[in-house]
Amino acid sequence: MRIVDVLGMSVRNLYKRKMRTFLTLLGVMIGTASIILMISLGLATDAQFAQMMEDMNLDMTVITVWPQWGGMGWDPNTDSMVEFDERELTDESAERISRIPGVVVATPMMTSQMLFRTGPYFMAATVTGIRPEALALMGYNLEYGRFFTDDDEFAVVFSTRSELGFIDSTTDEFWSNRMWMDDPETLVDIHNDPIRAYYDMSWFWNRMGWGGGRGGGFGGDDDFGISIDEGFTPIRSFDINMIGVTTAPEFMWSSDRIYMHIEDLQTIERLRTEGERREREEREWNPHFSMVRDGDRQTYGEFFVRVRNMDDTRPVAEAIRDMGYRAHFDADWIEHQRRMNQGMETLLIVLAVVCLVLAAITIAITMITSVTERTSEIGLMKVIGATISDVRKLFLMESLFMGLLGGVVGIVLALGISFMMNNFEIAFLQNLNMGAPIMTTGAANASISLITPWLCGLALLIAGGVGLVGGYYPAWRATRLSALAAIRGE
Amino acid sequence: MADILFELTNVRKIYQMGAESVVALEDISLTFEKGKIYCLLGTSGSGKSTLLNLLAGLEKPTMGSIKFLGKPLEKLSEKQLTLYRQRYIGFVFQSYNLLPTLTALENVTLPLIFRKISKRKRTLAARKMLKAVGLGNRWRHKPNELSGGQQQRVSLARAFVNEPQVIFADEPTGNLDTKTTYEMMDLITGMARERNQTLIIVTHDTEISQYADQIISVRDGLIESVKTVEKEKNANESENKEHENEDNPATNDAVATDNNGNATTSE
User: Fold this and answer.
1) CB–CB of A384 and B110 under 8 A?
2) Which pTM was predicted?
3) What are the pLDDT digits (tens) for A386-412?
4) B4-266 has which fold?
5) Residue of A5, A373, A384, A387 to mutate when probing chain B, most B C-beta within 10 A
6) Which residue from B95, B102, B111 is facing A384, i.e. has the nearest CB?
7) Which of A2, A15, A376 sits opposite B97 (nearest CB)?
8) How far is CA A397 from the centre of its chain?
9) pLDDT digits (tens, 9 = 90+) for A305-339
10) Complex ipTM
11) What residue segments make up the domains of chain B, in order of their start?
């Protein structure tokens, strides 16, 4: 039999049993549509995730290292809970980490809070202490001026957006909201205005209402109208020497930091601690980010390690963890997210496969009914010259056709549903949005469901496959019917 | 001597029904010649249908040999038997067995479809055939839009369309009224003779057997008698009947009974 004739006869038979064919198609249609939608949700999540990665500008070659505080903890290297020994980050650890193959630079970084002031304008800012030689290696690019060297004293490098942090002390403003403005007006000209830095933040904390009871404030030449407590500290403020403006590398996540030589910052920290000690006041500094004085030995809260390329990140991080420190790199987090997404996707696909199996069963039942009903027809065809393969082809073609037709309608249905999901805000469907939905700031134009041409092709293939699988047994039964018995049946 | 189409030697057919064996054909040796019309006459259960099935290659003999144009059918594979039926055999059934989804024309083309004949060619052949059976203008109709007689004509056209060597007609008029029965028998025998094809009719109806050249009576799996019907007489009789009586069936019936009586008494 020619394939055109097989097709023709199959279509007629399906058409003759319209209602039954329709119901069967419904099954395949639902199965196909569900598998497309399930995969499309996964694809959209992946695409969103990729977009998010792009938006976040992650630097995959930077590893953040923290000291190990000891105790029970999760070890990412072995993916298990482990009892850790306490281990501090020191200059010596920086050196050891630098020797790990693939490491470009391992540098301690410390951060501290300081107040910057010019006239009535002030800014509470995070100051990062970094080694001068590490600046360029960590990816800082100067926009103006130069970086500090070992010879500079209390030199400060601003970030491009640092100046936006200044607020007017005569107002009730607490925080500068200029950071989030599109075209903010700056209050301060960092290049020309004389800026003084105060490492004693009491005035600021008081202003914020977080005073902690220490009266008075700071500022020798106080424009803030607060009396000076002489003899409190040898140095509580200094005129800054602004030597450059830099853009921050991607891993810093903030574009308003202020940078100093790490040793200067250590000195300032020491003075501050000294002063506080003298005051017998405890102040809660975040131990995580700040240097802790421990005799003459410097320990650090944080190291940054840059590796040669992305492939080095994981082995280097693992080596650092093996040394007993905590290490984090973004790829780790991404992988974790991806694994979570995959878990969800797998679940959805299992559901869709169940739908398809049901569709295949529906086809099988329909075809078995059809074979039973057409026993005498099959017999007749065999008697007048249909080969076994002709009979098989006739029935397989019918089931394949049902599969494909159901598939096509299913694809259309899925496209329709997908369109609705993407264009109408359906609350419960939004929840299907997997993969860190909070962070998808660009979610406004992000798709919930993404149907690509290859997905349609795949779905059609699967639908056809379902048809063939469902039709295989009925077709086999048809070929096994005895021609004679079939004829006598009527 | 005419060409021998089928040659059966000591053919036995035994059906195994559970523990019991039923002998359908005892021991049959027969020859069928090309271009003749045969009738396998017998009551139901006599084995006549089994004989037809064996000849058509639908069943294999338990013992003995059936040769078609010198080739033993029992040695053919399933596929070869299918091809054998495709090429050499045409079938007419009691219940017409038309495919309800196909039009009359398409039903007629069915054997050609299985032979992979192109659509143009087979449509042409089928239309010619439908014209020959007198249904030239009803080719578009589906079987359920046709009367029993018309359906059997379609089935007739289907049997003849691939120009077979042999046509098997299994109780071809079983579902037809008397008048249509004669029309049908005239048509089928006429067409077979015209094309010099062998026609093997299976029936329990002695009347119908009169259309044959040779009547083979089957009883309890054995050939009871083989009787040659005289052609001239047959022709004359039918002519006479047509002229003398308005009620064809009645007279025919009488003649047939006579003949049958003769046959049995002679044994």
Assistant:
1) yes
2) 0.65
3) 999 999 999 999 999 999 999 999 999
4) Rossmann fold (3.40.50)
5) A384
6) B111
7) A376
8) 47
9) 989 888 888 889 999 998 889 888 887 777 777 78
10) 0.81
11) 4-266
